[in-house]
Amino acid sequence: MSTELFCRLPAGMRDCLPPEAERRRRLTQLLADLFDRWAYQEILTPTLERQEVFAEEGRRVFQFADEGELVVLRPEITAAVARVVATYYRDAPRPLRFFYAGNVFRRDPPQAGRLREFGQAGVELLGVRNPWADAEVIALAIEALRESGLKEFRLGMGQVQVTLGMLKELGLSPEAEEELKQALAARDYVALETSASRYRVVDKVEALMALRGGREVLERARSLAASSEARFGLEGLAQVWEALEAAGLAEYLFLDLALLRDFQYYTGVVFEGYAAGLGFPVLGGGRYDQLLYRYGLDLPATGFALGLERLLSALPEAAGPGPQDQAVLVAGRRLDLVLARAQELRREGRRVEMDLEHRTREEAEAYAAGRGRLPLEWVG
Fold it and tell me: Model-level pTM?
């Protein structure tokens, strides 16, 4: 087999080399520290899950049979957290707050901005059905983007009941309604325009798409939302908006009532975070009050997940988590002394590179200069 073939990666996969790997690790730690300060507890779920955990989402997943059991590489982590809660926390005091970080896998066609393996960090808040919980997770999402060092970003907020209610009011067949819904969720505006034209609802779909902006969108939507379900959802969204506005966060927000997320389980307020200059969201989440029914538990929930690679690509090199301290090069003519001094420095919290080539002092100085002027400690 050729060397070239050995070095080739599967489609949609990539290596993460040291400078980026360090930034990614520091970003993950920064987010973990933030979530911890908001009283969220860390949770770890396995990379492999039974296929049933994600079966209803219609995701293209990597799946295979393991001794007769169909398993998948997890395409996201929210459903796995729901499974854990239904297994271990049925009678635990509410609310429950969890955070996580890990890799997920999706068998999507490889394309720009879409990897098949990528990192996510996120939170889940379970057990509260009112707008206070929606406001908390959206405020935390804003804080996560701010603390990561992102300067220019906005969060779009929608409401699934409102959007689906307006689609239903078009009076289309279930198949046509689903077609429009899928086009909205995928942001496939060509498909949306084609479908709207085919079903002769162009004006109404354009009116829905125009429900985007600030507080004034709520008033316009009230005049269009006919069903009681849509009006109820709209009032909940208004409460969340007003709370975040009063908290001084309106500058990061806009309303988008054509926003639908790609997972089927969302039921209420949904949101996505967009960074300037990036053509896809860096963060997404929302309310999913019916997901835990799959596990026999009536427990409302909301949360969000943030794409680590996408966020890093939106951060300038100088922003966000900084690089580690520069390493110290310890060199000398005696291995025991070099080992001992390196240990001392490491115990002090320093990064230490040991010279392994038995260099002379002049050679070690030249080597340190060539490695970005590493500080040199010569022993012995």
Answer: 0.91
